[in-house]
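Give me structure tokens for this 252-residue protein.
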Amino acid sequence: MKNIIILLVFITNIVSAQNADALFSDANTLYKTGKYQKAIELYNKIEASEETSSELYFNIGNCYYKLNQVAPSIYNYERALLINPSNEDAKNNLIIAKRLTLDRIEELPKSLFQKLNINYLQKLHYNSWALVVIVFSIIASVLFLLFYFSTNSVKKRYYFVTSILSFLLLLSSLIITYQQYDTAKKTIEAIVFTKEVSIKNSPTQDSEEIFTLHEGTKIKVLDTVDDWKKIKLIDGKIGWLLSKDIKIITIF
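Here you go.
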């Protein structure tokens, strides 16, 4: 009985994947013929089936960009990069889409470590770093076994040194994986979806307005109080806005 259930689940997954592939192909055809809204509807059906991918959100972003909808296009390019940070097409289109936003916010200067983290370490998703950890663990284990069983003194020395180096790389990649995972889980980012929103100095409607934001601007969410979100901009400014004015960057 258990085997039958596993088989049914396996067959269901195959059929679901085939349906998603068919929908993706149909949606791409609609996009090529300029039927962007209909293409979005098919892409959304794929998302509802949980067959998500960086390419899916990239294509949704392209559709919204063609429809001149700034916030949804940026939102979906960000989702594409959330799955695959090395998606160059999504990166390039995101830069283009951001040129349509009204807010011009200067980013605070970054430290050397922050630049290293963004430019190199964050190029890989934490799942990819986890694979790097597995690879180095296998290499370190094989080299240690070769060292242990080798009878040649020169080879033994070589295997010992390389196994130690592999072990150090394993530890380094493990630390990076944990840091990337921890950062990803703690960092909540969102896109402003309201045309223009007033940012308050406290989570109440009658509090003082300290600045305004426009659709498409990316912000970091720091806290939640009732229907309000405490946000932070890349220039360090902090304020409060209503939850309905933003959309948290998440995947299905």
